[in-house]
Design goal:
Layout: E1 4-13, E2 16-26, E3 31-35, H1 42-50, E4 57-62, E5 65-66, E6 77-80, H2 92-102, H3 107-120, H4 136-148, E7 154-158, H5 166-183, E8 186-191, H6 194-200, E9 203-208, E10 211-216, H7 218-223, H8 228-233, E11 240-249, E12 252-256, E13 262-266, E14 276-281, E15 286-290, E16 297-306, E17 311-316, E18 321-326, E19 337-342, E20 348-351, E21 357-358
Parallel strand pairs: 3-8, 3-9, 6-7, 7-8
Antiparallel strand pairs: 1-2, 1-4, 4-5, 9-10, 11-12, 11-14, 12-13, 14-20, 15-19, 16-17, 16-19, 17-18, 20-21
Helix pairs in contact: 2-3, 2-4, 4-5
Subcellular location: Cell inner membrane
Membrane topology: Peripheral membrane protein
GO molecular function, one term: ATP binding
């Protein structure tokens, strides 16, 4: 069992407060991703869970036991670092079994656990090699294997893919997901990469300036962000956030955009006449037709990004930019005038001042 509970965690380095009253529950067997920009406190929070940083106030519990004052070796955790942290003079087998050797486990038992883990990670042909003879992806798998052989209650991953190239990142990311499915061990994973967060996490915790902005399942955060920070941080291409003003028409709210377009927001939004808002629509929820047309946003394409499987259109309207994304290929090119048609059911409305989400009334 490996549940993790953080109770009102605060951390200060002298006069600088870096973690602010963080409370978080991670269930046994859950894969939880801590994500945020540089300086958001995600790595500090992971190190607090590991026991590598002391808390200023608050408590850390693992399996229902208060471990706040315990050293790392007594917390039943194993950590995978971004720098691999392998001993260069030891073979792969020796690196993987070193912690078990320090714990006094018999040699035969160590060898068997190393072999089992190496088989799982497809490292068997590499057991007698030194780290310098391995690729970056192989070194990271050895680092993961060293954690797995210890059979901990909790795995902690500190940006483990940041030193790999793009192709290897995808491969090793898949291996980490597969390992979690097979082992079912509670995992806490730090990254700044929202693709890693969305594909790996069962729970995502978005951090900013040492505070939890929002926590929940990936698609909940993606589709139901609490504010513009969360909405912008998750999703590639990023959500369109267009400055607008609310106009009430027959009891229903509409958004007046800078180019004069009036787009419906639907009934039930807690908006008021003249309120400054940010009209949020994700690129994949923007339709596009050639030429001008009523009921949409007239814009001029200024760039077309075509990856083969995806197509992203960047366009200029009067006073703002809008991006649209498609899976199918379309005969569109820079300089072309188009009409962008948002899916009104997918619009997210935010207060322009606070950035907080303006929601519909529950009965709407």
């Amino acid at each position: 069992m490996g549940s993790v509970s953080l109770h009102n965690i605060n951390k200060s380095f002298k006069a600088v407060d870096v973690i602010h009253d963080v409370a978080l529950e991670i269930e046994d067997g859950e894969f939880c991703v801590l994500i945020g920009p540089s300086g958001s406190g995600k790595s500090t929070l992971l190190r607090i869970i590991a026991g590598l940083e002391e808390v200023t106030t608050g408590t850390v519990s693992i399996n229902g036991k208060d471990v706040t004052e315990l050293p790392p070796k007594q917390r039943d955790i194993a950590m995978v670092f971004q720098t691999y942290a392998l001993y260069p003079q030891m073979t792969v087998a020796e690196n993987m079994g070193f912690a078990l050797k320090l714990a006094g486990m018999p040699k035969a038992q160590i060898a068997e656990k190393v072999r089992q883990t190496a088989r799982m990670l497809e490292l068997e042909p590499l057991l007698e090699r030194l780290p310098k003879a391995l690729s970056g992806g192989q070194r990271q798998r050895v680092s993961m294997g060293r954690a797995i052989v210890r059979d901990p209650s909790v795995f902690l991953f500190d940006e483990p893919l940041s030193n790999l190239d793009a192709k290897l990142r995808v491969q090793v990311r898949g291996e980490i997901a597969d390992l979690h499915r097979r082992l079912g061990t509670t995992s806490i994973y730090v990254t700044h990469d929202q693709v890693e967060a969305m594909t790996l996490g069962q729970k995502i915790v978005v951090l900013r300036d040492g505070r939890v902005e929002q926590a929940g399942p990936p698609l909940t955060l993606y589709n139901d962000p609490i504010n513009t920070f969360v909405a912008s941080f998750l999703g590639t291409p990023s959500i369109n956030l267009i400055e607008a003003c609310v106009e009430m028409r027959g009891g229903e709210a509409a958004a007046r955009l800078p180019d004069g377009a009036l787009l419906p927001l639907g009934s039930g939004h807690d908006c008021r006449e003249g309120q400054a808002i940010l009209y949020g629509i994700r690129p994949e929820h923007v339709g596009i037709v050639a030429g001008g047309q009523e009921g949409g946003i007239t814009a001029t394409i200024h760039a077309v990004e075509n990856t083969g499987s995806d197509m992203v259109i960047l366009s200029d309207a009067q006073g703002f930019r809008v991006s649209a994304a498609f899976k199918e290929q379309r005969p569109l090119e820079p300089g072309q005038t188009v009409t962008l048609i948002p899916d009104h059911s997918k619009v997210r409305v935010f207060d322009a001042g606070s950035g907080k989400r303006i929601r519909r009334h529950e009965n709407s």
